[in-house]
Design goal:
Helices cover about 70% and strands about 0% of the residues. It is mostly helical and about 55 residues long. The protein has a domain at about 1-40. It starts with a helix and ends with a helix.
């Protein structure tokens, strides 16, 4: 196992996996911000108390 961990193939494959995860998270964040700014029906007012948003 140690021999494989020290190979360039292991690090190349690991970095590809991390890159795809970062892209996925960035897309989720960007879409969340976009939908929030567009006034999505799923969004609640940020400053509204829980009682006023009814769930």
């Amino acid at each position: 196992m140690w021999r494989y961990v020290t190979t360039s193939q292991f690090w190349f494959e690991s970095m590809q996996n991390w890159q795809s995860e970062f892209v996925a998270v960035a897309a989720i964040v960007a879409l969340s911000i976009f939908l929030r700014q567009r006034g999505s029906a799923e969004s609640k007012p940020v400053a509204a108390p829980h009682d006023e948003t009814s769930a």
